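Sequence in, structure out.
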Amino acid sequence: MSAQTPHRTLQAGHGPMLRALARGGWKERGTCRQTDPELWFADTSQRTKARAASICASCPVRRPCLAWALVFDEEYGVWGGLDATERHTLKRRLTTGETLLAVLADVLGWPIAAPSNPEAA
């Protein structure tokens, strides 16, 4: 799947959120921008993945980052603190009809309330 094509289960009814994610302005605020890109996409050990996840834990754009990876079906790398294997389980939940906001709230421990700023998705 193309990195710019939303996962088929999310194409209907998520227009504003998908547009905000696709604009990508949130990416400029990522903590990962201050680290070596290899950390996020290297064929890594558990120790390296744990380091990446720990950096993500305090990132101000962790929620839209993880949403991006789920919506646009990123196959590689650490996004929002989760690697591809961890995200696979979440993508499966989306295919069963669970909403993106509910999945994010469950994983990140945040309330389900729709964000007032779609980029905060």
